[in-house]
Amino acid sequence: MEDIVESCDRTPTPTKSSSQRRYSPIDEELEGLQDVAEQMMHQLTRGTVELDVISIVGMPGQSKTTLVRRLYNNPSIVAHFDVRAWCSFPQTYNVGKLLLEILKQIIAGKRITVGGHSMADMLRKSLMGKRYLIVLDDIWEVEAWDVLRSSFPDDTIRSRIIVTTRYHHLARNLKSHSYPFHLRMLNDDESFKLWQRAAFQGEICPPELFEVGQRVTRGCKGLTDLIIMIAGSIPKKERGDPKLWLKVARELSSHSLDDLLMKMIQSSYDRLEDHLKCCLLYMGLFPNGYEIPVSDLLKWWIAEEFVQNIDTLKLEETSKSCLYDLVDRYLITVTETKSDGEIKYCKVREEVHDFCSRTIRVEKFVQLVVPYNPHQPAVDTDEQRKCMYIHDTMKNEYSSDKAESFGETQGSLEFIAHPKFSIPHRTNLYPLLNDFRLIRVLHLLDMYLESSWVTAFQSLTHLRYLAIFVKELDFKWLSHLLHLQTLRVRSSYTMISPAIWKMAKLRHVDINEFSITWEENERVNIVESSEIVLYNLKTLGMFYMSVAHMTPNFWEKFPNLEELRLHIDEFGDVPDDSVLSRKFDFPSSLKFLSLCDIFLTDEVVLTIARLRHLETLKLSEIYFTGEKLLDLNDNEFPALRVLKLHHVFMMQWICSDASSSFALLETLVIKSCSKLEEIPYSFGDIETLQFIKVISCRKSVLESALQIQEYRREESNFQVQVSYKD
């Protein structure tokens, strides 16, 4: 283990900036499944008007989940159904937890109060009258379906449930109008095509590899995931070497199908650089099938020092490079992307997760010191590096007196993961955390903390990552955390005092609402001092700020700030002319800017246009004085790739030369802009435009988007994807 940890210090610097790379999924995993996908699309959108259960049966590694995920995220499917939910089944499951998981997706953003009703009743009532799509992924037993089925009403409006399973008898026992889809193995031709696309990612396969490639794929016996794993088992820069593929072919011929997957996963793991082994095993701590938020994962890797870079300002790029390396090797799968193409959620492949669980024990990568955790096995207690992992199924088992069972190992604990974990109110964290002095990552964002948390955190001076949900926060309570890199807070009231300037290692401050409070003499001293600078800060928001304080001198305190979420105080109500005409600045280094609840004046637009590195702009709750008009004719946004408009109260949008104003725009999202009549037709001239998403707008806005789509198709045969949702 010591060798693994030490080697993490030697993370290579990526040769290409990861911030320039977007995840571009290719259809390699649907090879041989196109006919099934077409039939399923028909049954999902047409077929019987009654509720139908569509089941897919196949052995592990046949891409059942991949097929369904592609359909689930298809824009036509998204537009067809009122609500959707995805639920993955562990081998041991809790019905209440599964129902809650589905319910949270159905009533997204609303508070769940069960009251006198059961969770099943609440889910049923939430679905009534809606055309819904529910995915139940990897069901192991008929009893699970029998318990859930009463929660799904049939309002004869073509609602659908998709079930994936590896068991034929389970599919036969589902009462449905559709026959189960039984996935077949790929034939030799399909296997070879899949291997080519996966190994060379759209590029031409060298002719000298044809013969050995066919030998490799024949050895895979038509199993989709095995072909994909093998395609990624050799590093990209070495995939043109026939000798390496010949070695793989020989290995395949000497193993049974049951052993092949694990053999190839072991081979892929052995070829990983040591820092990538750390990153992969770390992901194996989470439950099988758990979708990990990438924005958090990258920060956790940095906090644990798995990724390092001589230039500390580029740690995020290095971390992202590691993620894409694991994706390229097909060890992890992407489950959701952002509108800009960046990866939003990912998970470890099922077979890889099994491998990680075993390797964690063998290599003693972490010590799991919670003996009553059903999701993780226990290992020896004499290791130096230790980890406590608590999952939400433990919420009824946790109590402060059980902290004593951790024994003498507490002082060496480094990490706590808390996905969706909650414990009863008024639980005292102090006995649990007081002696865990080496914790680096503490994620408690889904658990409301009582006031005792302030005392409990006093000894956690090694924290690098902290995410908490509290009633109120005063920054001075955390000012002793001098190693802190990431702070995420959900709070009804947050006050950031001048103590923030002591925390020089801060990289990301993500708080739902906050402002910096200081005496006037303190503000002047800090702003004018050249020594008080947060060089490492990359993300800041949601920041409530006065226009008067938005000066170049202030923003110089954050010379490397890339993401800013800002609420300008004076623009909250109808401002007077003196405020509207006041000049102000944004940090020139910004790549992401979110502005909320402001009046969009010509001065604001000009200030934004001066941000030459800005790639993403999000405008929410935007008002106008006089005419409800957004005129961008004289402004250019040279680096902008993503533009999001949410509750922008304009009637007209003037932009006669969009190809000049938005030369690199790829994604346009318009949501709840109820007064907007149409998208400027000139957006059809933007050669880089790939995606237009319209949500809860006038029908004329959708019609203008479709006109742009048709124009692009006629002019350049280039498809602009249009998505619409009421």
UniProtKB/TrEMBL annotation:
Keywords: ATP-binding, Leucine-rich repeat, Nucleotide-binding, Plant defense, Repeat. Gene3D superfamilies: Helical domain of apoptotic protease-activating factors, P-loop containing nucleotide triphosphate hydrolases, Ribonuclease Inhibitor, Winged helix-like DNA-binding domain superfamily/Winged helix DNA-binding domain. Residues 35-203 form the NB-ARC domain. One of its GO terms (molecular function) is ADP binding. Residues 1-24 are annotated as: Disordered. Residues 285-355 form the Disease resistance protein winged helix domain. Transmembrane segments: none annotated. InterPro entries: Apaf_helical, Disease_R_plants, LRR_dom_sf, NB-ARC, P-loop_NTPase, WH-like_DNA-bd_sf, WHD_DRP. Residues 10-22 have a biased composition (Polar residues). SUPFAM superfamilies: P-loop containing nucleoside triphosphate hydrolases (SSF52540), RNI-like (SSF52047). The keyword Lipoprotein does not apply. GO terms for biological process: defense response to other organism. The keyword Acetylation does not apply. Signal peptide: none annotated. Belongs to the disease resistance NB-LRR family. PANTHER family: DISEASE RESISTANCE PROTEIN RP (PTHR23155), NB-ARC DOMAIN CONTAINING PROTEIN, EXPRESSED (PTHR23155:SF1228). This is Late blight resistance protein homolog R1B-12. The gene is LOC104243874.
